[in-house]
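Q: How would the structure tokens look for this protein?
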Amino acid sequence: MKDFLTINDFTSEELFDFIKLAEEMKNGVYTKKPLADKKVALIFEKSSTRTRVSFEVGVYELGGYPLFLSKDDIQLGRGESIKDTARTLSRYVDGIMLRTFEHYRLEELARCASIPVINGLTDDLHPCQVMADVLTIYEKFGKLKGVKVVFIGDGNNNMAHSWVIGAAKFGMDIAVASPKGYECDEKYLNEARNIASETGSNILQTNDPFVAVKGADVIYTDVWTSMGQESEAVSRKEKFADFQVNRKLMENTGKNTIFMHCLPAHLGEEVTEDVFESEASVVFDEAENRLHIQKAIMAKLIGG
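A: Here is the predicted structure in token form.
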């Protein structure tokens, strides 16, 4: 049994197998039902649109039964320990997806469960989203090695952390441009650099977005204020004002660069509407690919 808590849980070859299987599923080549007669608990301590719908539909399309559990539906939200919840659910279902806040909650659930656990998002990491993004990039460019991705915005968030690890695992180049004080957590940056020493990925962290985007194949951004940071919204708007993805930044790459966003987007803040709605934008391709990559992950881990 193997969990999917971080992209670094798998080898580069295993990760690419997920990508290829997702392609087969998307193109209708793969028609098996590996989750037939299997149940998957989908636990949401954080609300979601894409994560909930893509996982529920994905379990159904693979022949299984998705069991949606909000924080108000189970005792985990009212004082039962994570350990006991994990051991109980392991007797009822065949796999668990958890979308939560602190990363240690996911790790404890996985440690105590006897069934596969998938990370649907934590404050530290969002690996399923980055896997969907990588699938999208592979579709657009026909390759991954050497593709340059630039993340603009808060470097100390789950998307930036997952992206530096994901880029390193796939041999992609990654630059993160953030205001001072909002750089990537050194823990994840060092983890990515260790991976990159083997895969040849180039990693740059900078406070200058125009330096970062030179030669970018992909410009990526996320909201400036994530769930749980609402009290910082006003100050973050001021600090991140120079890190908006707009036409000027897109045109500074020197390439036909695509724009990506994990959604939901706050138009007029981290990205202008004209970039978001432009032909360069592939944000809804990414959103669709959440379904296909998560089906591939569940098929391999839960379906066997």
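The beta strands are 39-44, 65-70, 95-99, 117-121, 148-152, 173-177, 203-206, 218-221, 258-261.

The first strand starts at residue 39 and ends at 44.

Upvote if useful.
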